[in-house]
């Protein structure tokens, strides 16, 4: 069944805004809300649900022009979006003569660092009063709020948090890309900053068309005022009666076909090829049409691109293992195969416009975001007509088909899609069992900087907000925190990415850290990609899909040094030295069929199931004899390392079905000495699995 999505239009109004821009109503209303929040000394969460393409960036940053003293901190989940937002603000928002805008990504900051300048000194410089806006990722919030950076001067590191606190406008975008632990961290950031600075007015802007219910549950418990932009637009129109300037189409009409696909099998590329005759028919009618295909698996993206080239199509690739320096060229190809790397931060206009879209979607937010990649009112001509094929789980298609929609608006579709995906596990028990640990950690950091700790209002405020947000007494949560800390199990909860991959990069080089943590990535030299052979990616993809040869780190570094220019080598060398990975390898080609991987459990594994534990003597094995021999060498001394895990005495398939785990959840196959198939999760995923299993056990 084909669903026809109506065009999305909105009025612009002849009211003062930016330069000669006539704004949408939501842009004006949000700007007013931000102004009220930062001048009232009362923190406010401002939620703007405007659809993709409706001008949320201008709504977020327009006040930088009208209020010279306001400073903005923009948090974005991926670096591509950081650069996109930075450029948009530079082009559209008029700042003062001496005002600066900063990008805080590892690459940009490395290039901006002055000779002899430490990371702490650089951040201090880039939070001076000249910097009106900072565009960064939540990793920097974690590193700063938890005092992870190193400095010989004790006061320098906590000072960074106080400097960020001067940015009273804080913008959070693309919430659908965060998992439950990351959403929890961002809520705790707001709780921490408002507790430490109770007399300041903050505007926390949620710029997201796809809300996260769990975030708003936490926010309400914080006691911070929540205002919805769309709910106040009608009031503004009625009271102000602004003159309409024009009606503007910001999303074009399109035709949408839903395709039922078992996403747990990770074979959407095969389903696309099975149905390719539909694309052939479309291209036969509209031979100049250009398309984009978005998949979650890099391997599937590579294989699909290869097959389409064999069919004679001119195909570009944009994903984590492609040459990103030529991504613009790849995006301009008649067909581009990509992964989530283009889900945000890429505006398909001009030479990279697209007329048809094929995508898979494992959650509601991803569905709406990927759908918004096309038809953003940017094409010169209304033809070819925009066509979309969406590969979704069968229950999602059935749920939408039941209503027998033939035509609908984007808002109708968003509501139906959000309802349809609710079958999947939301990991809410994770908040109840683990959620408060970051704030308890923040309490102890704050306590170190208070002269008086007895009856201190700031410390008492932190205790209170921990209790309100998570429904448990502070002492009870503190006991759990101290237990996990003593067992060296707290790190994956505190780290934003859940893998502890950042700590070793910021601690002093002489400070020896014993971070027994499972690092899932492999650095590898890819002989199939001579233009950029140096890559890092998740072990499951590399080992199951590629033919590899493991090698000592020194051999890998020697090859890398021969490829990288002398000017860049010092930065790369530092990255290699600090990065913790599973191993180093050379990729010699692609496997004809994927190798199966599983974790061999120690004989006493049955004593440690259904709880989060530290476990030794784990070994990765494969059904491929050649790969197995190499893995045996890699894990020649498995007893020397312990990893944080949760093990369940059921297979991955049964766990997925019983717990309704989302397809992107990192659950691995495990095998006992008796050859029984169990499942295992590592790091923060271990805590997530344990939390939902504990809840499930109560039910059953």
From TrEMBL:
GO molecular function list: ATP binding; hydrolase activity; nucleic acid binding; RNA helicase activity
Keywords of this entry: ATP-binding, Helicase, Hydrolase, Nucleotide-binding
Pfam families hit by this protein: DEAD
Entry GO terms, CC: cytosol
Top-level taxon: Bacteria
Listed InterPro entries: CRISPR-assoc_helicase_Cas3, DEAD/DEAH_box_helicase_dom, DEAD_box_RNA_helicase, Helicase_C-like, P-loop_NTPase
Domain Helicase C-terminal, residue spans: 302-378
SMART domains: HELICc
SUPFAM superfamilies to which the protein is assigned, alphabetical: P-loop containing nucleoside triphosphate hydrolases (SSF52540)
Similarity-based family: Belongs to the DEAD box helicase family.
NCBIfam families hit by this protein: cas3_cyano
Protein name: CRISPR-associated helicase Cas3, subtype CYANO
UniProt source species: Marininema halotolerans
Upper lineage: Bacteria, Bacillati, Bacillota, Bacilli, Bacillales
């Amino acid at each position: 069944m084909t669903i026809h999505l109506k065009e999305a239009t909105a009025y612009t109004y002849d009211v003062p805004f930016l330069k000669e821009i006539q704004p949408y109503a939501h842009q004006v209303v949000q700007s007013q809300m931000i102004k009220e929040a930062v001048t009232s000394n009362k923190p406010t969460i401002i939620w703007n649900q405007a659809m993709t393409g409706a001008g949320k960036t201008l709504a977020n940053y327009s006040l930088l022009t009208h209020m010279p003293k306001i400073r903005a901190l923009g948090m974005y989940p991926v670096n591509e979006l950081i650069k996109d937002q930075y450029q948009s603000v530079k082009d559209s928002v008029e700042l003062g003569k001496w005002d600066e805008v900063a990008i805080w990504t590892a690459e940009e900051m490395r290039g901006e660092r002055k000779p002899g300048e430490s990371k702490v000194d650089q951040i201090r410089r880039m939070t001076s009063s000249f910097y009106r806006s900072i565009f960064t990722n939540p990793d920097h919030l974690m590193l700063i709020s938890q005092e992870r950076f190193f400095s010989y001067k004790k006061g320098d590191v906590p000072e960074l948090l106080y400097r960020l606190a001067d940015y009273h406008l804080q913008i959070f975008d693309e919430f659908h890309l965060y998992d439950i632990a990351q959403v929890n961290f961002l809520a705790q950031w707001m709780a921490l900053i408002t507790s430490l600075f109770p007399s300041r007015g903050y505007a926390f802007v949620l710029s997201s068309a796809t809300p996260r219910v769990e975030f708003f549950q936490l926010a309400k418990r914080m006691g911070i005022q929540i205002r919805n932009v769309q709910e106040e637009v009608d009031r503004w129109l009625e009271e102000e009666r602004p003159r309409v300037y024009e009606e503007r189409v910001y999303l074009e009409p399109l035709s949408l076909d839903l395709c039922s696909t078992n996403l747990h099998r990770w074979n959407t590329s095969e389903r696309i090829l099975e149905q390719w005759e539909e694309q052939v028919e479309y291209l036969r009618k509209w031979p100049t049409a250009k398309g984009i295909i978005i998949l979650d698996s890099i391997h599937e993206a590579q294989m699909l691109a290869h097959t389409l080239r064999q069919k004679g199509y001119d195909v570009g690739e944009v994903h984590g293992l492609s040459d990103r320096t030529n991504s613009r060229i790849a995006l301009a190809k008649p067909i581009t195969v990509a992964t989530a790397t283009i889900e945000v931060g890429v505006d398909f206009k001009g030479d990279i416009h697209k007329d048809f879209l094929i995508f898979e979607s494992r959650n509601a937010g991803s569905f709406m975001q990927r759908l918004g990649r096309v038809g953003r009112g940017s094409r010169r001509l209304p033809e070819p007509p925009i066509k979309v094929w969406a590969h979704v789980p069968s229950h999602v298609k059935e749920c939408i088909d039941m209503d027998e929609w033939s035509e609908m608006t984007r808002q109708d579709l968003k509501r139906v899609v959000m309802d349809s995906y609710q079958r999947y596990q939301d990991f809410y028990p994770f908040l109840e069992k683990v959620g408060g640990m970051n704030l308890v950690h923040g309490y102890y950091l704050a306590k170190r900087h208070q002269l008086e700790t007895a009856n201190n209002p700031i410390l008492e405020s932190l205790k209170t907000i921990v209790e309100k947000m998570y429904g448990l007494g502070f002492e009870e949560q503190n006991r759990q925190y101290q237990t996990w800390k003593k067992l060296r199990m707290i790190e994956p909860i505190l780290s934003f990415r859940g893998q502890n991959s950042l700590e070793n990069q910021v601690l002093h080089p002489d400070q020896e850290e014993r971070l027994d943590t499972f690092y899932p990535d492999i650095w590898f030299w890819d002989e199939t990609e001579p233009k950029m052979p140096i890559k890092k990616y998740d072990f499951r993809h590399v080992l199951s899909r590629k033919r590899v040869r493991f090698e000592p780190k020194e051999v890998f570094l020697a090859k890398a040094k021969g490829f990288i220019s002398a000017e860049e080598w010092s930065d790369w060398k530092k990255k290699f030295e600090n990065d913790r990975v599973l191993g180093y390898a050379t990729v010699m080609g692609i496997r004809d069929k994927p190798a199966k991987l599983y974790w061999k459990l120690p004989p006493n594994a049955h004593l440690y199931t259904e709880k989060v534990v530290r476990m030794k003597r784990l070994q990765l094995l494969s059904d491929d004899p050649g790969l197995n021999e190499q893995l045996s060498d890699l894990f020649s001394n498995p007893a020397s390392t312990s990893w944080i895990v949760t093990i369940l005495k059921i297979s991955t398939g049964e766990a997925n079905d019983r717990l309704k785990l989302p397809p992107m959840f990192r659950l691995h196959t495990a095998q006992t000495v008796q050859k029984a198939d169990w499942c295992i999760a590592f790091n923060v995923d271990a805590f997530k699995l344990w939390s939902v299993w504990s809840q499930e056990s109560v039910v059953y």
